[in-house]
Design goal:
Elements: H1 2-17, H2 22-39, H3 51-82, E1 91-96, H4 102-114, E2 118-124, E3 127-132, H5 140-159
Antiparallel strand pairs: 1-3, 2-3
Pfam family, one: MNHE
Organism: Thermosipho ferrireducens
Keywords: Cell membrane, Membrane, Transmembrane, Transmembrane helix
Length: about 160
Amino acid sequence: MYFSAFIVIFFTWILLTGSFDLAELLVGFAVSLVIAGILKRYYSIKFDGKFISRIIKFVFIYLPVFILEMIRANIDVARRVLSPSLPINPGFVRIKTNLHKDISKLALANSITLTPGTLTLDVEKDSLYIHWIDVKTTDPDEKKELIAGKFERILKGVYE
């Protein structure tokens, strides 16, 4: 687990710095060792047969869907701000998730929060509590589909 976390952190360091200078690599190596040591207690990254397919799903399926949904939500919120006559119906909603792992729920909650017009307030067992700028329905299945449906289906394949 420690080695796997180190590898992921070190390669992330290289990607973020974009440098192969020896001094940069040595600092990245040292920082990665320390962070991996801290994280090994709390999080395990496993390189198994599914690791590559999960990365591919995340990068090529989830990220494009997330970016598209974020653009749509930004346009919707911008229209509401620029046209105050557009109705809003703000409210708090609860949606149940089929995700079981904490990392899956975290990714879903963050995806919802990063999409303008929605804000995840709490995650409790299998439920997410969300503030929604325009509550369109009270039906639990419709709420879930409108807020988290696309994200949840893909994240289930990535993390679980």
